[in-house]
Design a protein that fits this description.
The protein has 19 helices and no strands. Helix 2 packs parallel to helix 13 and helix 4 runs antiparallel to helix 13. The protein is an all-alpha fold and 457 residues long. Helices cover 77% and strands 0% of the residues. The protein starts with a helix and ends with a helix. The protein has one domain: Orthogonal Bundle (Hydantoin permease). The structure holds phenylalanine (PHE). The site of phenylalanine has 15 residues, from helix 2, helix 3, helix 11 and helix 15.
């Protein structure tokens, strides 16, 4: 086994749970979940999302953590070690590439949150009342290439600096302090949002399922959203799992992470959707700008909105940062373990790649007409990356990972790993059934369904 001093390890069980929750909780919950829900018909989507978290997310998370802790390696190294001389290492490579790809466009949105923090403290929203003004501010901000690329660059640097600091010193310390504060702020904003005029309509949209709105596309998006939000399907949890202690119970830890992550997503939807009706936006027409357009209107309706606004965007940047560091860490640990690169060099190399790939996404909100509406597919570069990498690649990854643990590495090996140090594998039989039959079959059916109906995007 490798020297765990060198690789680093979490300080405690809470250390792992917090860091993994830090990876899971991020823009996926607060930025992506509300607008995916709005676009995909509301309550029925939320319901499918929760079902996927339980039936597919939790089992795959347990599998990923077990792989990571057993192999004590990055995703590529882990598959190589557990299935030597096989093609399984490709699943790890797909994960590394997906991670850098997601990092590239994720950092664009994360950059916006920093930009919005700066805008709030410089008083841009102090006298904001109408939706049109908010929309205009948003469009001119993201349509400006210097802003878009500048903030992307800044955010990539932030992530690089933390990841250079190493696992426990850099990542763990941040998450512990700031996550609880973010949670409290979310609750306060949600209370304001649900008490706004017309919020009732939003609550109906959010809680009363209309099953006629379910299509192949919405099912695929709900599954993609669940995996994205839980950081699954690309080896982030394999990597973080390689730093979890032997005495920790994998099932309990994974359960906590899924619970926290889902709670934050549901609360974020409750914060945004009712406010959408207050400002008079149609949910179906919402997109990646939703949170940025709607939130300033809520702040304007609150006493001390300035403080709430500034605090919110600052904490959202931090939540995004604890996710980007996990995306970057996957590729970095791969280069450190497999290519014996120094951590600093690996970080610089991978951040540069992420920055360059992020540029088309950064320019896809008006700064470049070409990237804003790509020919033939009629989509923006960021939207395209978000669907291909953030939905399909993760779904394929989760499919292959469940096949791997069920039929290659073996359910027995996972039991041995989870039960090491006299730990109990709670619901072990249920897990084995899910990962053998439900996860791969459900994902397969959803894929076929999407392809047959032609709902690729
Ligand atoms: N789960 C993170 C979020 O919700 C994003 C992420 C996806 C992080 C995949 C790592 C791996 O914001």
């Amino acid at each position: 086994m490798q020297n765990s001093q060198e690789r680093g390890a979490w300080g405690s069980r809470m250390g792992f749970v917090l860091a993994a929750a830090g990876s899971a909780i991020g823009l996926g919950n607060i930025w992506r979940f509300p607008y995916s829900t709005a676009q995909n018909g509301g309550a029925a989507f939320v319901l499918m999302y929760i079902i996927f978290v339980i039936l597919i997310g939790l089992p795959v998370m347990i599998a990923e953590i077990a792989i990571g802790r057993n192999a004590q390696l990055n995703p590529v190294g882990a598959f190589r070690k557990l299935a030597p001389r096989s093609l399984w290492a490709i699943v790890g490579m797909l994960g590394v590439a997906t991670g850098i790809g997601i990092l590239s466009y994720y950092s664009v949105i994360a950059g916006w949150t920093v930009g919005y923090f700066v805008k709030t403290i410089s008083g841009d929203f102090s006298s904001l009342i109408t939706q049109d003004v908010s929309k205009h501010i948003f469009e001119s901000f993201v349509g400006n290439p210097y802003n878009a690329i500048g903030y992307l660059f800044m955010f990539v640097i932030f992530s690089a600096v933390v990841v250079m600091g190493g696992v426990s010193r850099g990542i763990e310390r941040w998450t512990k302090i700031l996550m609880p504060v973010l949670f409290i702020l979310l609750i306060l904003l949600t209370v304001r949002s649900v008490t706004l005029p017309n919020a009732g309509e939003g609550l109906v949209f959010y809680f009363k399922p209309d099953f006629t709105k379910i299509t192949a596309g919405t099912v695929g998006s709900a599954l993609g959203q669940a995996l994205f939000s839980l950081s699954l399907g690309m080896g982030a949890m394999i990597t973080y799992g390689s730093y979890i202690l032997k005495k920790d119970n994998i099932v309990i830890s994974a359960g906590y992470v899924c619970l926290f992550d889902t709670m934050i997503a549901i609360i974020s939807g409750l914060m945004i959707i009712p406010a959408l009706y207050f400002v008079g936006l149609e949910p179906e027409k919402s997109g990646p700008g939703l949170v940025f357009v709607v939130l300033p209107s809520i702040f304007a309706e609150m006493p001390g909105g300035f403080i709430f606004g500034a605090g919110f965007f600052l904490l959202l940047s931090v939540a995004a940062l604890t996710s980007t560091i996990s995306l970057l860490e996957v590729a970095v640990s791969y280069l450190v373990d497999e290519w014996k690169l120094k951590r600093v060099k690996a970080v610089i190399l991978m951040s540069m790649i992420a920055f360059l790939f992020g540029i088309p996404s950064a320019l896809s909100f008006g700064a470049s007409t070409w990237f804003t509406k790509l020919p033939i597919i009629n989509m923006g570069a960021l939207d395209l990356a978000n669907v291909i990498l953030g939905n399909y690649s993760l779904t394929i990854g989760a499919f292959l990972i469940s096949i791997f643990v069920a039929y290659k590495w073996g359910v027995k090996s996972v039991f041995k790993e989870v039960e090491s140090n006299n730990n109990i594998f709670y619901y072990g039989k249920f897990w084995a059934f899910m990962v053998r039959f439900i996860c791969p079959v459900a994902i397969f059916i959803i894929f076929v369904y999407i392809i047959v109906t032609g709902e690729y995007f």
